[in-house]
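Slides due. Your pick:
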Amino acid sequence: MKIDKGAVRAALMKSAIGQGISDAAINTLLGAPSVHVREFAEDSMIFYAGDMPKELCILVSGKVAIRQDTLSGREIYV
């Protein structure tokens, strides 16, 4: 599924982050060369616990699970 910046714009405007941001500011943000639309395959690892944040991710469609491994080796979803 190809996601375009129009879908990203719509998702951003619906989000809490996008509330109160002008259309012009959103267009400037999405037009920046450092903004990339990325897709992840199902069950992909997007980041690991302890990773330093390097980017802001906006979920346009799908779902994300947050998994944590316990000391006993079990996986829990939070």
